[in-house]
Amino acid sequence: MNNADLEQSIRHCYSTWGDRYYADYYQSKTAYPPVHTDIIRDLLRQSEAKTLLDAGCGPASMLRDLDLPNLERFGFDLTPEMTAEARRVLATQNVPDSHIWEGSVLEASSFQQPGMSPPPTFDAVICFGVLPHIPAPSDLTVLTHLTDAVSSGGWVACEARNQLFALFTLNRYSADLFKTQLIQVEALRQRMQNPSEELALDQALEELDQRFRMDLPPLRKGYEQEPGYDEVLSRTHNPFELAAVARQAGLVEVQCLFYHYHALPPILEPLLPQAFRRESIAMENPTDWRGHFMASAFIVVGKRP
Known about the structure:
By secondary structure, the chain is of the alpha/beta class. The chain has 2 domains: 3-164 and 217-303, Rossmann fold (3-Layer(aba) Sandwich); 172-209, no CATH class. Helix content is 38%, strand content 17%. The chain has 12 helices and 7 strands. It has a 7-stranded mixed sheet with strand order 3-2-1-4-5-7-6, sandwiched between helices. Helix 4 (80-91) links the parallel strand 2 and strand 3 (100-102). It is globular, with a radius of gyration of 20 Å. 34% of the residues are buried.
């Protein structure tokens, strides 16, 4: 799928979420608390940033909760319904409509506020919920655009789904990680020396699948006729590899901050739901080494020299 078709599928996926995304994922009692917003809020306060760009801002899910004194907020998103909702919500906080526009993280021009000449740079740029939908060859492009959008000494924070979390989930994500990333089945299959070994390998892989709950998690479908989250490109990232890409893009002092911890493998949550949620929240520590495996998401943070 080329980038144009891919982006159209993403727009379609999110087209019905504009006025419900924040309620479903930030306000719902069943949703995990938005601890990532707290991480960014702390970074903004520590750095005393005056301007913030949210690349892929959605319906201003984070920008609306980052209404800090003396912070000028900007954002763009790929989906028209999302930008319309972002403008509506932020207008109640006196953010001008011109601060929100449509754009793609794959295009350098999207990081420039329309009509501004010369284009400004920002003290901080964040990018959440976007990288999973980006083809692997374009990760460096996105990180480079994020880096170019901040001024010298400014910082970038880019979120990703944690691929290594699959070592803890014991579900179909685990089976996929074992086979594609660790074992590298296709390459191993080519090294089998005879049909007997090939058959034995197939049997071994079938037995491996039996060690995991292959029916979990359920596929996420769309609300109406649009494709759901699991029906469009929705990748995970290895924290070690993404940190290396961030450095390649020119960022320094790169670190990974982890969030959305799981006190137990998620397949066990139904057995003790209240304790599971309570103890998971109690674990929240962006720099805990266990986050590499027990947190489902992370943020690559770095500064532009």
